[in-house]
Amino acid sequence: MALMNQATLKKYISSSPSSPGVYTFSAKGGKALYVGKALNLKNRIKNYIGTEDIRLKKMISNAHGLDFIKTDSDIEALILESQLIKKFRPQFNIVMRDDKQYFYVGFTKDTFPKLFLTHQPTKLWITPFNGVIHSLVGPFTDGNALKTTLRYLRRIFPYCTCKKPHNNFCLNYHIGKCPGYCCLKKPELSIKYQVSRGYKKNIRAIKEILSGKKGSLIKKLEREMVQMAKNANLEKAIELKDKISKLKRVFENAKIIGNWKFFRNSKLETTERSRAVAYMAIRNLEAKNKKQNVLYGIKQLLKLAQLPVRIEGYDVSNIQGIHATGSMVTFIHGQPDKNFYRKFKIQTKQTPDDTAMLKEILERRFKHYEWPFPDLILIDGGKSQVNTAVKTLKNMAIKIPIIGISKNERHIGHQLIITGRKTPLSLTKLSGTDKNLLLTIDSEAHRFAIGYYRKLHRKLFK
After folding, report:
1. 115: closest CA among 206, 217, 218?
2. b/e map of 396-419 (b: 16 or more CB within 10 Å)?
3. CATH of domain 300-461
4. For 432, which DSSP code?
5. Residue 217 has pLDDT above 80, yes or no
6. Distance (Å, rounded) from C-alpha 281 to C-alpha 292?
7. What is the pLDDT of residues 164-182, one digit of tens each?
8. Could you report the per-residue pLDDT of 369-420, keeping only the tens digit for each?
9. How would you write 358-413 as a 3-class SS string?
């Protein structure tokens, strides 16, 4: 092939795609001279026409060919460009960087590995976290695109960026970007171990994606998802399905096409059929779960012996103790059963003491042995209310798991109080199904209690 000139470059432009991807200028014999990425390949190649940059002119004059690899996203182009530069070490990628060093993503070797960006891959002992470098992925030419990619990935695979441990959960924990226990000064050891395993899985996933192994990662997640579904661990299966879906959306289902050819064969078709069957199985299980509202996540979270099929929610409504009322609502298989809703007019001394009122309600309720007992009790309130409920049932020799929902300053449920657990659990850590169910029960108990309170209050004015 003849040396490239402006005329031949224009011919390449006419055949270049207007899509994201990677382009490679190659010398005689096919050796890569320069690898670059672009959001729009056609527009990027147009920039080489009539350039006055001496280095670009020299590179073009040495080129014999120009190849394109289309991608379906800029993120995929960023990662593919990194792979090709690392593999071929093109001469002009070194010459044309204007003394700017490429970006590398470093991973520390810790119980909870940290992730950071660096320009200095040779000085492995320097990290922002005072940790020991375990590995590096790169080089990446576009720092902004890389940072954007990491922000997207962190939403799917949370990791910690805190430089020092602290006493309380960090802000990123509350918005779902950090597992939480990784940066606490005194975490519970058993929970720390469990979080560490999942945390390292997240780090490995990010490393695989940045190394161009997205396809194999998705297949691995799909296999794990199907296995979880077979083991009846539906919440985990759905969680993995959501991760797979989010990951595909980030890359817009990107596949490297153009120079990569895919042939339909019996093996591929078998794989596709197996994957389709797997997703169908998950969808069927999700439909079954929605119909029966089976709460596998809550069972595992509270370490219950059986699924909490019957859940009772309690709330107290009063203003300075006047006409105080209480409510009990019952949900069976996640659905309200109003045949077992109960209203309580507080009979003891009317004082603004929610714990005393709650004690009365529970004592009166559990004297009715003819009413079926619940598998789980949900209290509208914080630690003091939950402790009161636990003590009340203990005095009555009744053993039923009890949890509470505490409210934030806007009176919105945001933390779960669990008996035996020292620190509250953010509701963001629950699956969407479990979180919505508990908030619905709590809201219904509050609605029922305040409705009765208003009825009594109207009678007073009459």
Report:
1. 206
2. eeeeebbbbbbeeeeeebbbbbbe
3. 3.30.420.340
4. H
5. yes
6. 16
7. 777 777 777 766 777 777 7
8. 778 888 899 998 888 899 999 999 999 888 899 999 987 766 677 789 988 7
9. HHHHHHHHCCCCCCCCCCEEEEECCHHHHHHHHHHHHHCCCCCCEEEEEECCCCCE
What is the rounded distance in angstroms from the CA atom of residue 344 to the CA atom of residue 357?
10
The pairs formed by 225-231 with CB atoms below 8 angstroms and a separation of 24 or more are: 225/278, 225/282, 226/278, 226/281, 226/282, 229/278, 229/281, 229/282, 229/285
pLDDT for position 312: 94
pLDDT at 392: 93
Q: Return the CATH fold of 6-95.
A: GIY-YIG endonuclease (3.40.1440)
Query: Would you state the pLDDT for residue 258?
Result: 35
Quick one: which of 419, 331, 420, 326 has its CA closest to 374? 331
pTM: 0.53
Residues 6+ apart with CB under 8 A from 277: none
106 has which bridge partners? Answer: 116, 136
Nearest to 131 by CA among 187, 177, 182, 176: 182
Whole-number Å distance between alpha carbons of 268 and 289:
31
User: Which amino acid appears at position 50 of this protein?
Assistant: G
| Each residue's pLDDT tens digit, 4-60 | 666 777 788 878 888 888 888 888 878 888 888 888 888 888 888 877 778 888 888
Please state whether beta strands 376-380 and 342-345 pair in parallel, antiparallel, or not at all (unpaired).
unpaired
Of 306, 395, 323, 404, nearest in space to 357 by CA: 323
- 388: amino acid identity, one letter: T
Coil, helix or strand for 58? helix
Domain boundaries, the chain: 6-95, 215-292, 300-461
Model confidence at 238: pLDDT above 50: yes
Q: What is the mean pLDDT of the chain?
A: 76
309-336 burial by CB neighbour count: b if 16+ within 10 A, else e? bbbbbbbbbbeeeebbbbbbbbbbebeb
CB 75 within 8 A of CB 152: yes
The torsion defined by the Cα of 269, 274, 276 and 278, in degrees rounded to 10, comes to: -170
Amino acid sitting at position 339: N
Query: Parallel, antiparallel, or unpaired for β 133-140 and 310-319?
Result: unpaired
Task: Count the Cβ atoms, other than its own, within 10 Å of residue 280.
Answer: 10
**Secondary structure of 82-138 in the HEC alphabet?**
HHHHHHHCCHHHHHCCCCCCCEEEEEECCCCCCEEEECCCCCCCCCCCCCCEEEEEE
Q: How far apart are CA 365 and CA 344, in angstroms?
A: 9
What's the confidence (pLDDT) of residue 404? 92
